[in-house]
Amino acid sequence: KAGVTQTPRYLIKTRGQQVTLSCSPISGHRSVSWYQQTPGQGLQFLFEYFSETQRNKGNFPGRFSGRQFSNSRSEMNVSTLELGDSALYLCASSLGGLRETQYFGPGTRLLVL
Amino acid sequence: DAKTTQPNSMESNEEEPVHLPCNHSTISGTDYIHWYRQLPSQGPEYVIHGLTSNVNNRMASLAIAEDRKSSTLILHRATLRDAAVYYCILRAMNNNAGNMLTFGGGTRLMVKP
Asked: What are phi and psi of A36, to 5 degrees?
């Protein structure tokens, strides 16, 4: 079975721009979660989607948003980019039940200049 | 969420056992203990989890103290490929957090040849 895939793998943007990252979960998985990883703050939860609905949300500003499609693929969007948004963005998928094992993708590394 | 405390880093020799400790003195009776690890340039991956009894799988063993205030992840024979950051995470059985994982700082394991 193919693992979680994320595109693009690397991205460079400038301040004020917006960016959309994509995540394709493992086939059959219905839950997709997003995390931000920075050297200073570590791994932080952004949000989780299940059956096209946001199930949980972390403590991030409204510039960070996401959505999930009927095929469980998910996108996250960051508007009005700031330098501090430079990070590795990780996506994780699971079957959909609670407290299930999360399978992570390789991440998208975003650099904001 | 109950908090976990891990050493920042540990060193091991190749082919020797490694014991990675985790303290969780405020653990509740319904919290599961999960371990994930993050290899360099990859997303985190699930290692093992348990509730009260010790657990074994092909990757590692998890030893849980009788009072559940601490646990130890055991790698029986460390290889160079086990060099990673290891995260000890508590997941509540009954909450509304969906599949959110709360990562702490983790332990960076270095394996010497």
From this structure: -110, 135
